[in-house]
Amino acid sequence: MTDGSGRTAFPPAPTGLGALSATEIMAGYRRKAFTPRDVMDDTIAALETANETCNAVVTPMYEQARAEADRLTREMRAGEAKGPLAGVPVTIKDLVFVAGVPAYAGSPMNTSFVPEADAAVVSSLKAAGAIITCKTTTCESGYKLTADSPVTGITRNPWNPGRTSGGSSGGAAVGVAAGCGPIAIGTDGVGSIRVPSSFCGVFGLKPTFGLVPRSPGFSPPSWASLAHTGPITRTVADAALTLEVIAGYDLRDAASLPVSARRFDTDAGRLDGIRIGASADLGYAAVSPDVCAAFGKALAILDSCGAQVTMDGPGLDPDILEHTLKPIAFTEQAAAVASKSATALASSEADYRNVIGAGRRYTGTDYIEASYRRGQSRNAFVKLFERVDVLVTPTVAVTAFEAGRIGVDTVDGSKVDPHLGWSPFTWPINLAGLPAATLPCGFDRDGMPIGLQIIAPWLDEPTIFRIAAAFEAAQPWAKFWPQLALP
Q1: pLDDT band at residue 217, thresholds of 50, 70 and 90?
Q2: pTM of the entire structure?
Q3: Has 192 been annotated as catalytic?
């Protein structure tokens, strides 16, 4: 893995404690090398610096975070602190409830909304000893794949502030990429964890649908049958540790899966015996040359790790975006604001109102027919996983584009849908409810990160972690930092 200029030498690492991984922070506490207050002071300083340039923070929770860090510092000195994430900073996307903290969700309709209860994922993190530092930016109700909103403005990429962070979990990915704490919680309805993680050069995991409960989540519940909650981190081990904490059954979420707690092995090893299917375009996607080149190099790495790599894919309908995703996603988005008047929606951005209008034009029959086609695409993955253990693709067909744009309408000379056509590899996985992760696999000619997506059968996160850990050992992406994070 090179830095986009052909160089393989690693830049100097950031000096702040907020740039350490969660496992490094916990090890430092055990050695008494520093305290939670030390970590929190450095993390907050990094957040303030990154926010000035990238606009990643919606609601700072710094005073509460410092107070919690002081409490944990006292407990650690007394030998009383407990929890697998005790003293580790975490950020929360602004679609996810934190009790007593505003949840704007990027929407002018929610500027006075303050939830009374924590989302289940937040409760789990607090119980594990994690310290929440802030709420991070998202687009309006998570409807698009950038984090720009009429509430917070444009969220920018730490590798190049002239480029987008991606979204809708853009602030979450920016914070991790810029060394502002090791863990962020994002949500993913059509790629909203994986797109910004790919654009910002970090690891992002969309778990199996229902593995991490969303309750009470964000209200109204947009992307109801598509949205997942998961971690964004710099390392595979941190993502696995976070998933161990936040996965679990919650009766309040009808989609929540009654699965037992699990531990995930992230020790890097050979991939002998792993059958990897690979597709550079899923049979229909336009992809930029730089992304194709990085994908080919990633396949060679996987092969060198012992995996059996073959070109294979699920054989999806080339019109899956128009025939399947849009009738479902746009209808669910429109249903989420069905009680809102035209006056209430007037302060929303025009493009969001257009999506709502499109969703309202679909009929119930359209939704049911799309759901039937969704079942067909799910069955295509069932058949694929009889032949291979996982599928790998590029994460996004392009690298981060100009900040402030919704998307691009041309990829490698081909016209694409400006909302979703440049991310053709992410939303089919939401339709199927499969687990998928993105990991950095290279840079384009401008030095912008490129992601590799690993997709596994339902509830097979362990295989994702196994492959990602092997790739991480062979190509240690966490040693590359954006200039914004460097001393």
Answers
A1: confident
A2: 0.97
A3: yes
